[in-house]
DNA sequence: CTTTAGCACTCTGATCTGTCGAGTGCTAAA
DNA sequence: TTTAGCACTCGACAGATCAGAGTGCTAAAG
């Protein structure tokens, strides 16, 4: 995904690279179009403004920068940011404090969703951007046990525990009345029969068995199975949630100062389905994913970028965490933060998994 | 609370009242300052603009309306809205469609928090304002049963059911390892001992007993009690949550068109503690509560108003639902909607309570 | 061939101006 | 008590002007 734009490293030789890098860095830092003069003054080039102007004109021809209007300085295009990120950026190392803050927050939580929320919140604060967590569907959750608690005449709390320690529960209403003993037997049976399988396959297997065995008229079996289907179907949608943290942080960003842009950005956040779709694609890629403006249907038109990393236990990805912010952001700082959080979460998950399976 | 401003009905006699009413209605409808001329043109007064100007000047002296600048029309002040609501407003009756929409949404949900969220969302949509639900603390939840489910070596899912059918659960981590049988015994004991009491008193009673009986060195008793305290303390904070729905709806309101106001409004929503404090006061009052601009610390400075109603079972209030919007809103339409939803929710709760206690 | 100084040109944004229209308050007449 | 008339105020808007920033191009210098 990252390289789909086919910008090869050798497309830009020495001086132009340096100039582009400097433009991105300066623009990210100050938010104003970069003029040839200010570049010259930066002292990083032994060149006059006039020469720099030539280089900048070339960069513009190549589509790495543009001018908002005729007599303005240059601003990086999405393509410019992309090249910067792929070839020019020097990631900043995390400070002690950043590492500690993240670690502290991550170990503060207990349940999966709590940890995720805390993580994205701390990320939002450290980067000053909008944090997000994506808890994917539980389709592939490997079931370890199913339990039931009676909470009313026809209401049963179903508890599903995954091998990774995730606990999901849901109250479901039943047609028939169950006794405590029946319920506990049903839980034991379903656990014995289906533990070790993924929820999705449990579901289909249950439906299949229910279909095949209809002829048997085994009342208990049928009831139990139907209850099981209810559980699995009630519990599965629990994941697949997207949390957005600190959306108000964009209120203070100069690029969203005018009402119109602000409004657009907020509306963008409302379109969670789009975002979910994109994150669902990214979840298969390792490492930090960066999507800049036009590179994704979610961020295009809004001057937004997405920086996200997946988390999960070694074998299987679980979901994504990351941030959304204006295309003009400190990628060199944000990317390592997101990456670190992703790792920290994964570590936490693996730990609790081991603990669970001892 | 509603009358604390001490505006007596007789403070305004016939003509002035009519003019004030018309000003509020017109202003709410169009959002522009109302001029003497437009009032005259409305046809509701057999008076010339000049006469109306006199009346309007009086209203201004009394503090019911003001001019944004010298040569502008009049706009109601908070005090003007207050008088309008208390004495002049004719509540619109709900349409068939509105009633049906609310009823449908309310009966769609099952668990308490789900129902509340659905309710506030439908309210937000119908009124085009920002919906909110306030689930108060569970301190006064009357416990019906406590159950435990093992979900790991040292992790226990605690399930507390209230007499009103509310189900709360939380995973807690324990120091010691419990067996299934021990857990089920502990659950039975705690249920027998404390059911029928409020969580808050259960908590203090447990702590007291734990303190008194320390000398006894009854290991089982101590473990069970400590677990119980863990449950109650883990579960209580579950309520007391405030959900805000559809905050983006204010993006489309003309009074929040400029970036500055928009920003302020959003920041206001972030200050949930303030809002919670106010709602906590309101929860003791019956009927629809309306707080206009300066009347509450939350809404002042932001040109916001709060319209809320409490819900709960007959005996005890549970929480509040309502909306937040610009002071300029159709109170005559919004208030009945909020009231209706409050009633619908209460009815739903009472129903499920009865069902529960059969 | 590359770099740079110089210069004309363009565009933005701030400031000022004058005009128009809306709306008021006041006064005096009905 | 009501109303017509009138002077006055204010905001919004459209032009006009101007300074500043920054560019592109050309021609000279290295």
Derived from helix and strand composition plus strand pairing, the structural class of chain A reads: alpha+beta
Mean pLDDT of chain A: 89
Low-confidence residue ranges of chain A: 1-5
List the helices and strands of chain A in order. HHHEEHHHEEEEHHHEHHEEEH
Largest sheet of chain A: 5 strands, antiparallel
Helical content of chain A (DSSP H or I, runs of 4+): 40-55%
Report the portion of residues of chain A in β strands: 15-25%
| Overall outline of chain A | elongated
Lateral arrangement of strands in the main beta sheet of chain A: 7-3-10-9-8
Largest interface: A-B, 32 and 31 residues
- Counting copies of identical and different chains, the oligomeric state is homodimer
Overall description:
Two copies of one chain form a homodimer. Chain A has 358 residues and is α+β, with helices and mostly antiparallel strands. Chain A has twelve helices and ten strands. Chain A has helices at residues 14-30, 36-41, 49-61, 78-88, 96-108, 112-127, 180-194, 199-212, 219-235, 259-270, 272-282, 331-356, and strands at residues 65-66, 75-76, 130-135, 143-150, 155-162, 167-173, 241-245, 289-292, 304-312, 317-326. Chain A has a five-stranded antiparallel β-sheet with strand order 7-3-10-9-8, sandwiched between helices. In chain A, strand 1 and strand 2 (75-76) form a beta hairpin. In chain A, helix 5 (96-108) runs antiparallel to helix 6. The interface between A and B is medium-sized, with 32 and 31 residues. Chain A binds a DNA duplex (30 and 30 nucleotides) through helix 3.
């Amino acid at each position: 995904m990252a390289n789909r734009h086919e910008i090869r490293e050798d497309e830009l030789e020495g001086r132009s690279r340096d100039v582009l890098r400097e433009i991105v860095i300066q623009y990210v830092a100050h938010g104003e179009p970069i003029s040839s003069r200010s570049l010259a003054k930066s002292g990083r080039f032994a060149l006059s403004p006039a020469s720099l102007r030539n280089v900048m004109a070339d960069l513009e021809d190549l589509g790495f920068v543009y001018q908002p209007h005729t007599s303005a300085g240059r601003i990086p295009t999405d393509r410019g940011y992309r090249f910067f990120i792929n070839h020019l950026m020097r990631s900043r190392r995390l400070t002690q404090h950043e590492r500690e803050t993240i670690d502290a927050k991550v170990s503060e939580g207990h349940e999966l969703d709590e940890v995720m929320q805390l993580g994205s919140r701390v990320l939002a604060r450290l980067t000053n951007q909008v944090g997000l967590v994506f808890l994917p569907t539980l389709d592939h959750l490997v079931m370890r046990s199913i339990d039931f608690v009676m909470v009313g005449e026809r209401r049963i709390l179903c508890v599903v525990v995954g091998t990774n320690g995730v606990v999901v529960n849901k109250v479901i209403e039943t047609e028939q009345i169950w006794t405590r003993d029946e319920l506990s037997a049903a839980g034991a049976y379903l656990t014995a029969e289906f533990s070790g399988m993924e929820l999705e396959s449990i579901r289909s297997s249950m439906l299949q068995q229910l279909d095949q065995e209809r002829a048997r008229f085994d009342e208990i079996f049928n009831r139990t199975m139907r209850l099981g289907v209810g559980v699995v179907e009630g519990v599965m949608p629990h994941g697949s949630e997207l949390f957005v943290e600190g959306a108000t942080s964009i209120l203070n960003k100069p690029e969203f100062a005018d009402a119109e842009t602000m409004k657009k950005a907020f509306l963008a956040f409302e379109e969670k389905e789009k975002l979910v779709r994109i994150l669902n694609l990214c979840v298969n890629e390792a490492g930090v994913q960066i999507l800049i403006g036009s590179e994704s249907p979610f961020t295009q038109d809004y001057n937004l970028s997405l920086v996200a990393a997946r988390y999960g236990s070694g074998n299987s990805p679980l979901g994504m965490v990351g941030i959304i912010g204006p295309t003009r952001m400190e990628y060199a700082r944000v990317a390592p933060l997101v990456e670190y959080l992703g790792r920290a979460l994964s570590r936490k998950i693996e730990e609790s998994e081991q603990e669970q399976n001892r």
